Amino acid sequence: MSQNILIAGLGLIGGSIAKNLTESGQNYTIGYDVKKKTLEFASSNGIVNETSTDFKEAVQKADIILLAAPISETIRLMESLDTITFTKDVIVTDVASVKSPIINAAKRLTNKSITFIGGHPMAGSHKRGIEAAKSHLFENAIYVLIPPLQNDEGKVNLLKEVLQHTGSKFVVLRPDEHDEMTGVVSHFPHLIASSLVHQAKKWQNTHSFLPNLAAGGFRDITRIASSNPKMWQDIFYHNRDKLSYLLGEWINEMKDLKSLIDKNEKTKMITYLENAKNYRDGLPEKEKGAIPSFFDIYVDIRDQPGALASVVLLLANKKISINNIQILEIREGLTGALRLSFSTKEIQEASLEVLHNHGYEATIQD
Ligand SMILES: NC(=O)c1ccc[n+]([C@@H]2O[C@H](COP(=O)([O-])OP(=O)(O)OC[C@H]3O[C@@H](n4cnc5c(N)ncnc54)[C@H](O)[C@@H]3O)[C@@H](O)[C@H]2O)c1
Ligand SMILES: O=C(O)C(=O)C[C@]1(C(=O)O)C=C[C@@H](O)C=C1
């Protein structure tokens, strides 16, 4: 049965879910946001079926309310929902990156019309706002659900049914284990990425040429340092106990590493790097999740005008769409590598064939 879904917070995540659910045509979507411009964008781009500037009025039309605001704002919205007299029962869910504070807020709800189901789609981007929303953002991504306190399988199944068009894979976790795991594979890496950027910025005072040497490796590991600072401060604050513990653990590990470097412990260092490589290589690559996976190919192209355009045009002529392009290293007058990312293995293989047929040196690397 078609549901009325209110999405409160139409940024990257709320906008992406709204876009997906509206495209599916199976349910009716209503968008609410504190920013008028966001609502105008959502309306003029057909991201929702209807927009509202009045939260309390909009919730009365909804069967399902999806809160997609920053964590602190999500808690405030939950508190506001608790004071509303509903004309029917509603499912309320959220997308916040830290779950314990949200489930603690759910425990404080006294409104009998509300069934609260925690949620967290494990995909995203360093971009923010509705302009960056993509309807396929959660395809194959893990979507964590925290069932309601008064376990209600029927309502959890209804929510899964509504969200299934996103292409996510649902898993049920407890809030604490969720926060510990996302602490390790999502929140803590953000701290480290920002700290690496600070280190580079500091050393630029000594070597002004330094940014020019920041090639693929530095850019790969620090991409997420370009994320929304306010959102990440909110995440760090709400998961501060786990992050403080992880930082302590990391500082000790760095001390051990320093000792391996200072004493030139060659064998131990190789083992350390090998263990990391084996674990990283063994991560589930063909799914999005903590580590998004792409189906990449590497193409050698010459540094000459139009070289990049020729590759893109060849693939476009075959109606192949590229998810991401990165120029890894092209030096004047020499060949260099281009990394093209595709969404499936089939498209990756088809692209490889097209490029080989036109004389390009292209490879798939593990
Ligand atoms: N960005 C990611 O990679 C990612 C991934 C998964 C989950 N999340 C979670 O999703 C939530 C939203 O993050 P985002 O990346 O979409 O941020 P965003 O900044 O792109 O969007 C947030 C939106 O919420 C709106 N908003 C703020 N306060 C509001 C309120 N009181 N009522 C209604 N709308 C309000 C803002 O105007 C904005 O449009 C956060 O809780 C975050 O933890 C983020
Ligand atoms: O891909 C990114 O840029 C993200 O930061 C996405 C990411 C992550 O850390 O993997 C960030 C926060 C979320 O709660 C879930 C996903």
TrEMBL record:
One BP term from GO: tyrosine biosynthetic process
Pathway: Amino-acid biosynthesis; L-tyrosine biosynthesis; (4-hydroxyphenyl)pyruvate from prephenate (NAD(+) route): step 1/1
Prephenate/arogenate dehydrogenase domain: residues covered: 3-291
InterPro entries in the cross-refs: 6-PGluconate_DH-like_C_sf (IPR008927), ACT-like_dom_sf (IPR045865), ACT_dom (IPR002912), NAD(P)-bd_dom_sf (IPR036291), PDH_C (IPR046825), PDH_N (IPR046826), Preph/Arog_dehydrog (IPR050812), Prephen_DH (IPR003099)
Domain of life of the source: Bacteria
Pfam families, per database record: PDH_C (PF20463), PDH_N (PF02153)
Record-listed E.C. numbers: 1.3.1.12
UniProt keyword annotations, A-Z: Amino-acid biosynthesis, Aromatic amino acid biosynthesis, NAD, Oxidoreductase, Tyrosine biosynthesis
Reactions catalysed: prephenate + NAD(+) = 3-(4-hydroxyphenyl)pyruvate + CO2 + NADH
Any one GO molecular-function label of the UniProt entry: prephenate dehydrogenase (NAD+) activity
Family annotation (SUPFAM superfamilies): 6-phosphogluconate dehydrogenase C-terminal domain-like, ACT-like, NAD(P)-binding Rossmann-fold domains
Classification via NCBIfam families: PRK06545.1-5
Family: Belongs to the prephenate/arogenate dehydrogenase family.
The protein, known as: Prephenate dehydrogenase
UniProt source species: Oceanobacillus halophilus
